[in-house]
Amino acid sequence: MDGYDGRTKFEVSNGYANWPLPNLRGWCQIGIAQTHDDQLIGDCGVHVNAQGTEAELGITLSRTRQGRGLGFAAVQLIVNWIFAQTDVAKVVAITDARNLRAHALLQHLGWPRVGTLGPDVEIVGRTEYVFEMSRPSQP
Question: What is the pLDDT of residues 58-101, one digit of tens each?
Fold first, then answer.
């Protein structure tokens, strides 16, 4: 993965809430590495809006590593980490309408599709779907 800097990679584990949150007012990329050999296989991009009320998440995973639950685990852990470290009310993901694997991943995680962006909104000529996960209610 081009641009990967080992100093910005961290391992997300059961102790995710203890990791300090980097400045997310711009996009922050978090590497996804295999635990057995530390090979970088993807990343999650995270951005929190200026008001601190909403985060956007994107994920890239090597095609050879897709379909094994790695994207599921990464998104689940990163979203839990965001909710533990910020006051955001929801996390959104915007996907190309043709990206069926991303839709399946988000729906499997319980993210409802809440909107459609027409081909003249975000990327000219492309329709995109908006998915979101709201902060879990506190018991």
Answer: 988 888 887 777 888 889 988 988 898 889 999 999 999 999 99
Question: Residue 88 in contact with residue 48, Cβ under 8 Å?
Answer: yes
- The residue among 65, 67, 23 whose CA lies nearest residue 46 is 23
Phi-psi category of residue 62: left, alpha or beta, with phi > 0 → left and psi -120 to 50 → alpha = beta
Task: Give me the numbers of helices (H) and strands (E) for the chain, helices first please.
Answer: 2, 6
| Backbone torsions φ then ψ of 80, nearest 5 degrees | -60, -40
What span, in angstroms and rounded, lies between the C-alpha atoms of 89 and 135?
5
In degrees and rounded to multiples of 5, residue 36 shows phi and psi of -80, -25
- 86-139 pLDDT, tens digit per residue, is 899 999 999 999 999 999 999 999 999 999 987 666 566 788 999 999 998 876
Question: Rounded CA gap, 47 and 28, in Å?
Answer: 6
If we measure between CA atoms, which residue out of 35, 78, 83 comes closest to residue 57?
78
